[in-house]
Fold MOSC domain-containing protein.
Amino acid sequence: MRYPVEVFTGKIRDYAGSRPSAIAKIQVDGELMLNDLGLAGDEQAETKIHGGPDRALCHYPREHYLHWARQFPAQADLFVAPAFGENLSTDGLTEQNVFIGDIFQWGEALIQVTQPRSPCFKLNFHFGISDMATQMQNAGKTGWLYSVIAPGQVSADAPLILASRVSDVSVQEAIAIAWHMPFDDDQYHRLLSAAGLSKSWTRTMQKRRLSGKIEDQSRRLRG
């Protein structure tokens, strides 16, 4: 399958009452260079939690916007790509049919799914909805992140093409294992076994197995 894609990049800007962010992105056409850390011209404000080799690109399914517009009719006009700060927007790819470790060809590049996007409190300020990050996590409509395993020229004219599937854990299942289930050591082991899983998610799941408990997520979700 070939999935046409829209492409977005953003610059860091200040947000009143919150920390700087590059969540506000604009559509770009023509060819771009994709390297190990992402698209040329794209920025991340806090590289400890955003960006880096395992989080070089963010992908959000365009079909989710109808859900959010129905959830928040007063803000319905906000819910169009790239409102969630995504670099890639498509129809036809969702958390249900994309798997951890999936390798996609995009132009000259190869990109690999590493983890679901972990919603953070900056979304609350971005949309003016106090619990937007929590609602996004609970709904399982988070999108996902990629690493770049082969850099190259990419463009909105080049579709995403699934090249290899190397695990049996969908992004939807990873979300459920991490956030929707009570402590489950067997499921954490299953997720850890998924090829391509990011270092940060590997660390989190391994810490849970060692401690026997789920970490507090309130700071990430509420600031």
Summary: The helical segments are 64-71, 122-127, 132-139, 171-180, 185-192, 199-211, 218-222.
